[in-house]
Amino acid sequence: MGVAKLSVSIDERLAMAVREHAGERGLSGFTARALRHELERERLKAFLVDLEKDIGPPDDDLVAEIDALWPDS
To answer: Which residues does 22 contact at the CB level (< 8 Å), separation at least 6?
Structure first.
């Protein structure tokens, strides 16, 4: 697998926070994982939109039941 070098512009505070967080793991690896994660989230969102078009929205009672089981953050 090849490697592509990209140049991006982000808020200075975000850049500092990312560099600090990535630490010894490296900025490139951290950024690649973050981008991969965001692509997965976007694909999941598109899948859920398509699913709702195909079978309709989830049942409100079922959503409430599942929400009650989910731990608060």
So the answer is: 29, 30, 31
> Per the domain annotation, does 30 fall within a domain?
yes
Length of the chain: 73
- pLDDT at site 73: 58
- Residue 46, in any domain of the structure: yes
pTM above 0.90, yes or no: no
User: How many folded domains does the chain comprise?
Assistant: 1
Tally DSSP H helices, then E strands, for the chain: 3, 0
pLDDT tens for residues 23-47?
988 999 999 999 999 999 999 999 9
Domain coverage including residue 56: 13-69
